[in-house]
Amino acid sequence: MQPFVRRVRRVPRLFSTNAPVNGFNGAVGNTPLIFLEALSKRIGAEIYGKAEFQNPGGSVKDRAALGIIMDAEEKGSLKPGGTVVEGTAGNTGIGLAHVCRARGYSCVIFMPDTQSEEKIQLLRMLGAEVHPVPAVPYENPKNYNHLARAYAEAHSNSVWTDQFDNTANALAHYRTTGPEIWKQMRGDVNGFICATGTGGTLAGVGKYLKEASHGSTHVWLADPPGSVLTSYVNSGGNLFERTGSSITEGIGQGRITQNLGEIVKDLSGAFTVSDTKSVAMVYELLHSEGLYLGASSALNVAAAVELASKLGKGSRVVTILCDGAYRYQSRLFSLSWLKSKGLEHAIPEDLQKYIVLP
């Protein structure tokens, strides 16, 4: 017998406004909420993904980039003709580069040299000055975040946007992403879960949903291997255990950022999602849902499935579809790369037809 799933009322996709929007900035946000039908039927719960890959810059980080820059303008720290500097694993930099082009600023990005070549090339195509640097822990003064701050301090009319500890990041999601989800779900959200890099999305959305639901929405953190956050959350703030590493980019942490600090004490729990599960979900989403998504998005969906199983049949769980697979296709769909990571067997045999790159 097929597992019961509440029938989702199908409504036509409507434009978010009845008039043209004002440039790139006006196009950020108001993304669709996608019901993941095949997965939901399989587990007997309702899984929804907020389609942040449909932001004009292609990722959830467009919201943080716009929110942080507008906050700097309002405070007077960013003046006309100025330079925006950030340390980023990629997508925030892409969002910042777009917003800088739209608002007349220069953009300088420091990023770990472990990031995909597609991201680095795109940043340069958008006019950003990119400095790939060795990936070292945050405690190391050569960490890309510290190098970005030092660059801004050394150049006049420059501002370091500090995405990890600038809570304008979380505020952007509290003001936009959270209310959008609540409205789209018609005020019925049992659980929200996503991975975190800066903590802005989880904190902003989680805080809003907690308030709107009067505390009834469970907010969980999903973690890749190599991050300390699962151990921290589940130990009540006592442990910072780091084991392993992950293929995912831009998520996981070795500390509690100020953005994450906005929600961490109110989280219901956390768990780690293996790279094997994340990569398998990349292919499953492509095959069964027609969605071409990156590994972080796939990790979030795998985590949403696990959370729905914890919450029980008929539960309604929302997660974030961070970005598409286009920025990672040379890795995720390459047989040689998958073999180099020991992940070629993570993909079910009937889905290996999607591995089209050598």
What attributes characterize this protein structure?
358 residues, alpha/beta, 6-stranded mixed sheet, 4-stranded parallel sheet, 10 strands, 14% strand, disordered N terminus, Pyridoxal phosphate-dependent enzyme, beta subunit
Report what the structure shows:
With about 350 residues, this protein is an alpha/beta fold. The protein has 14 helices and ten strands. It has helices at about 25, 35-45, 60-75, 90-105, 115-125, 145-155, 170-175, 175-185, 200-210, 230-235, 275-290, 295-310, 330, 335-340, and strands at about 35, 45-50, 85, 105-110, 130-135, 160, 190-195, 220-225, 270, 315-320. The strands form two sheets. The protein has a six-stranded mixed sheet. Helix 3 crosses helix 4, helix 8 packs across helix 9 (about 200-210) and helix 11 packs across helix 12. The longest helix is centred in the last third of the chain and has 17 residues, at about 295-310. The chain is globular, with a radius of gyration of 20 Å. Residues about 1-5 and about 10-15 have low confidence and may be disordered.
**How big is the Rg?**
20 Å
Mean pLDDT: 93
Low-confidence stretches: 1-7, 10-15
Number of helices: 14
Number of DSSP strand runs: 10
Q: How much of the polypeptide forms β-strand, as a percent range?
A: 5-15%
What would the principal axes of the Cα set say about the shape? globular
Q: Helix amount, in percent?
A: 25-40%
Biggest sheet: strand arrangement = 1-2-10-7-8-9
Largest sheet: 6 strands, mixed
Structural class: alpha/beta
Spell the H/E element sequence: HEHEHEHEHEHEHHEHEHEHHEHH
| N/C terminus separation | 41 Å
Protein name: Pyridoxal phosphate-dependent enzyme, beta subunit
